[in-house]
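Internal ticket #5521
Category: modeling
Description: The requester needs a full-assembly model to guide mutagenesis choices. All entity lines are attached below as received. Residue total reported by intake: 308.
Assigned to: D.W.
Attached entities:
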Amino acid sequence: MNARPERFDAFMARANAAYYATHDPFADFVTGPELTQVFGELLGAWAKYVWQVMGAPEDVILAEAGPGRGVLMADALRAWPMRNVHFIESSPRLRAEQRARVPFATWHERLETLPPGPMIMLANEFLDALPVRQFVRRESGWCERFVRAGALVDLPSDYDLPDDPVGSVREVNEGALAFVRALAARGAVGLFIDYGPMESGAGDSVQAIRAGHYADPLAAPGEADITAHVDFGALKRAAHAQGPVKQNRFLSALGLFERTDRLAQANPAKAQPLRQSAHRLTEPEAMGSLFKVLCVCPPEFPTLPGFE
Ligand code: SAH
């Protein structure tokens, strides 16, 4: 077989589409909304507040990209009961899970098919699943990574990148950049929670999780969840935004601990897991400081809750 090299982002897109279509990702990793109902409730209350800042338009859309099992939205809708809910989800399997929790939602493959009008978009651990292009600096200049027969090959590239030392790796998430640009172009608000550094930098952040363990991203496409750190610096240059702030600062400002305490008092049997989850979301060694929150919004917006 004389396989043609496949650009790394195309490989990652294909592998992840197969993975999400056939696997239960939540057997492999845990996310904020899966840890505690408070996560989605706080985001629902936040979205309702933002809607009021927008002037409470009646036709507002509450959207979510990559809703997983639909837990975040189901929790959010308790804090902000509304019916005009749209999901962007590619996996038929996860769509079925989402339908079980939010039956009246409307599903889309991509942002472009959502109806026009005022919109608030939530996205937790969505952008990290989108494919990245990877470049590596060689003596001769920048090369782009391709995959051929299960191995990486570097081909010369004229992509415009900083003059990093030889051996450096740069990643570009074109899907994420296009997504935030499209939100900004329609004047929507987008709240993105994901892991990655505050500022752009060099480094290979691609990782794969297979059956709960780190794996070789190239080894078994479709069997592992492949992600890359989100480049919040690049997103902020692509669209007007507030943040990024660390997840612990954002969730604490929104009242994570107060809400957790109230629930724990009302339901002593759940007090321990609720408190543990709140800590896991905020402890710097756990999810508190690697995870960042960025809000894409029109430039004239006041500072929104969590971004003070
Ligand atoms: N937000 C959820 C799930 C995160 S997993 C949570 O926090 O629990 C990533 C989600 O993004 C899954 O629902 C996956 O199917 C979806 N997804 C990944 N790539 C996608 C793409 N290109 N288009 C639409 N959805 C995608």
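Resolution: model delivered.
Comment from assignee: Residues 1-27+133-172+214-221 form one domain.
Ticket closed.
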